[in-house]
Design goal:
Rossmann fold; two-stranded parallel ribbon; 2 strands; globular; P-loop_NTPase; Helicase_ATP-bd; Helicase ATP-binding domain-containing protein
């Protein structure tokens, strides 16, 4: 298993806390995967809507501790995004 595994990805990581309590309890145990994968397997969390409190929750739930971290905040401004309001 470990020889074939290159990385673990969690998309929409901002829902870990909410879903772990109400929808998918297994989300609350994602940090336990470290005991199976070891520390050398990258654990990547992706989300477009993480604030400081949510980031802290993700960090704690996944058991990052003092591990190396790389974060990227690209902001929310998108020139190609448009909103359309139409009567239905």
């Amino acid at each position: 298993f470990r020889k074939l595994l290159k990385a673990l990805f969690v998309d929409e990581a901002h829902v870990i806390a909410e879903w772990a309590k109400k929808f998918r309890e297994a989300y609350g145990f994602l940090g336990r995967l470290r005991s199976f994968t070891g520390q050398d397997i990258p654990f990547v969390c992706l989300s477009a809507t993480v604030n400081t409190a949510t980031f802290s929750m993700i960090w704690k739930t996944l058991g990052y501790g003092l591990r190396p971290f790389f974060g990227m905040d690209l902001g929310v401004s998108r020139r190609t995004l448009s909103y359309i309001v139409a009567r239905m």
